[in-house]
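Work Package 3 (structural annotation) set out to generate three-dimensional models for the target panel prioritized at the project kickoff. During this period the team completed the workflow that converts sequence records into discrete structure tokens, so that structures can be stored uniformly alongside our sequence database. As a representative example, we reproduce one entry of 330 residues exactly as it appears in the project archive.
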Amino acid sequence: VGFARVSGVGLFVGFALGYVAYHLIRQIDDYLVETVLSAVLAYGSYLLAEQVHASGVLAVLASGLLIGNSGRRYGMSHTTRNVLIHIWEFMAFLANTFVFLLIGLQVDLDKLFDSISLIGVAIIVTLLARMITVFGFSPLLNRFAPNRTPFTWQSVLVWGGLRGGIALALALTLPSNLVGYDEVLVMTFGVVLFTLGVQATTLPALLRRLGLLSSGKNLIEYERRRARLAAAKASEQFLQTQYKQGLLTKENYEVVLPEIQADISQFSGEVGEALTMLPDIRDDELEIVRKEVLQVKRGTLRTLRHDGIIGTDVFRELTTEIDANLSGKE
């Protein structure tokens, strides 16, 4: 009963504050203010939940789910969305680092090795729970969802259900005088180690086995060849600029230029070969070029603002349009 109350009240506090923040964000069109509001929501929901003796971690989780889904989709501009994603990715990485450090300081290595059987049971239970959830509910969801989740991706969801920061944070919030506190910490840490050391490292092999990485590998190879060609052409332009400005002698220019041009010819052939052998790459190339064009536009606007040719309001308006197009390409 106590656990249900702590969890339920924590979720309620998080959703309630998230709902309020969601409506505030819908009325505001300033990415700096919205970023600050998201930080206030995260810390405020945790502190308020703790004040009423509920789970602060679940409160933050609930508010984050609401803002990260409905708030991001309906209440934020594309610029705000991009800024928040980058900021909170860094914050999440930083928080995970501290959580792992704290759990490492509290877990006794001797107890970790002595509790191998407990950890094994915990791993099996978490995997079974994941299988029951994914394989059990996916057929039901596929009946109503516009995009069906195939069995291959269901398998990835089961094996890729990595547990880390949230599980450790929940374990750390338990009172230290709780019966079995040390065992809970050890099992949680063991399960997280298993997901990071075994599941995470074997996930690429599973994706390849299921045939889900073939196009990704082709795209990476194409990007590699295209990057070599772009670098070679940039070096040719640099060499020509140096020569025209009198910073390079004619003799050395005539020695180095043919070498670079030979590289350009070779890399151009490799790019053309990739497009011929891998026809599905053509669509990817089109998307890459469109994204690069939008990035060039964004960089030009940044330069214009820096030089004082356009004001901040115009810069924000036009970059928001570009960010909307970029988001549509991702």
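The longest helix spans residues 214-244.
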